[in-house]
Amino acid sequence: LAELLSGLLDLSSRGDKALARQLTDKLRALITDGRLKSGERLPSSRTLARTLAISRNTVVQAIGQLESEGYLTISRSRRPVVGDSVASADAFTSGADARKRSPAFRLSPWAQHLGDAAWPPVYRGRPRAFQPGFADEREFPRHIWGRCLRQAAHRVRRHPRQGPNDPDLQQVLLKHLAVHRGVRAEPRQIMILPSAQAGLALVAKVLIRTGDVAWMESPGYGGAFAALRAAGATVCGLAVDRDGLKLAERRQAPRIIFVTPSHQYPTGCLMPISRRLDLLQFSNRTGAAIIEDDYDSEFHYDGRPVAALAGLDPSARVFYVGTFSKVMMADIRIGYLIVPEALVDAFELAQRHIGLLADMTMQAALAEFIERGAYRSHIRRMTRLYRSRRDRLVEALASEAGRHLSFDIPAGGMQLLARCKGAIDDVKLSLQLQAAGVITRPLSEMLYHRSSQRGLFLGFGAWNEAEIDAGARILGAHVRRS
Ligand SMILES: Cc1ncc(COP(=O)(O)O)c(C=O)c1O
User: Could you tell me whether strands 318-323 and 289-293 are parallel, antiparallel, or unpaired per DSSP bridges?
Assistant: First the structure.
């Protein structure tokens, strides 16, 4: 046995783990591997010390530690013995054996639905043109943001908050949304969350009962589909036309309607006021809640934006969702959800229960960033930049693939839908493009009703002109071939 140990215990006096700890770890490994079996006796501490050429004190320490962990039993003047059933217990908790044996857990319906929804799409490697949904982080004013964060670190210490939502941020954000998006609410109605997606999931979780019907735009946002479906809704896609979601008489009234009226995802169209009023009337008549996802409507290129539904709704059935990840950068994991006054307590309870809490220092920094006017000036600057990138992409696509693709030029936002004129397999095309280094999202994967529409969804915000031109050249070459 002593030989076995001396072979295995190549203790290194230069290792950064103290000798006693090395010996403990190696002995424990011998036991858990089954090389030292239950009931087997170790050599005496004196013999071990001699064999391993270390001090007896080190051996005593290691053995004492393993005794306290339950791997060894020590009784007076007897050699330490490997404890009962430790090896078999460990076989369950360590290594490949345990993985092989681990039972296949049955997933909850919630997790199964999430798996079926196949959202979000996974892209490997760093973001590349034309991955949708990205702001240009290279343009973000990090020096100002850094100052806001520093100030926030002190502010949080001076004014510890009680609830999950920073009242200063609620105040300044509401002021911003009231002026620029026409939103009407009280500050306490704003839940500050880690993302807009968290807002969608929270509404779905709080309002939906299994089997409830939810309507969403088709083509539409996969994140909304996933949140609604996972919560147990039967999701029904309603076709969008040039004015956005078109209401249709259906047998079963919906419990929730998901819309992106200011910049429809992914077609980019804007829902005119008449249709907005129709939608509100419908919700009033049927009792359906409306989720208004205003994800990137801070960026407007042509004309003034239409006021949000959340500002037009006297009956308070609109849940308004927004995010800082598009205006600022994806790493700022903060979004928000405005809920009807009567539901503030229920939503705050759910928010705390699920732990959908946004970092307090980050919230304070954002309040500071908005208060200083840095948020508005960043939006103004990025609006000019994104408008020129949108125009650049449209130009480049027209010259590279104008015969095969058509597009409506979006009046806002950071992405554009290029529709295929012929019967192109957009999933296959998108995969080929991905292999060639260009990211796109196929339109057919965003459809929630039966439709033969095909196309590619392209983000243009995060890429400079050279990147847009290079991406468009590759895209054009593939489209022309398919
Ligand atoms: C329509 C829409 N809603 C919501 C989101 C999610 O925003 P967040 O990153 O804050 O979850 C996105 C992100 O791409 C989006 O495109």
Answer: parallel
Q: 281 C-alpha to center of ligand 1: Å? A: 27
Higher pLDDT: 230 or 313? It is: 230
- Three-state DSSP class for residue 257: strand
Q: How far apart are CA 248 and CA 237, in angstroms?
A: 11
Q: Which residues contact 473 (CB under 8 A, 6 or more apart)?
A: 396, 400
Pocket of ligand 1 (CB under 6 A): 133, 195-197, 221, 223, 260, 265, 293, 295, 323, 325, 335
Give the pLDDT confidence score for residue 297 in this predicted structure: 81
DSSP state of 330: T
Residue 333's pLDDT band (cuts 50, 70, 90): very high
Q: Counting Cβ atoms within 10 Å, is residue 234 exposed (0-12), middle (13-18) or buried (19+)?
A: middle
Q: Which residues contact 247 (CB under 8 A, 6 or more apart)?
A: 238, 278, 279, 282
Q: Yes or no: say if 72 and 63 are a contact pair by the CB < 8 Å rule.
A: yes
Average pLDDT over residues 290-295: 96
Residue bearing the CA closest to ligand 1, atom 3: 295
Other beta carbons within 10 angstroms of residue 443's beta carbon come to 23
CA-265 nearest atom, ligand 1:
1
| d(C-alpha 193, C-alpha 138), whole Å | 25
Q: HSE of 407 in the Cβ direction (CA atoms, 13 Å)?
A: 26
Q: Give me ligand 1 centre to Cα 360, in Å.
A: 21
Cα–Cα distance measured from residue 414 to residue 151, given in angstroms and rounded to the nearest whole number:
31
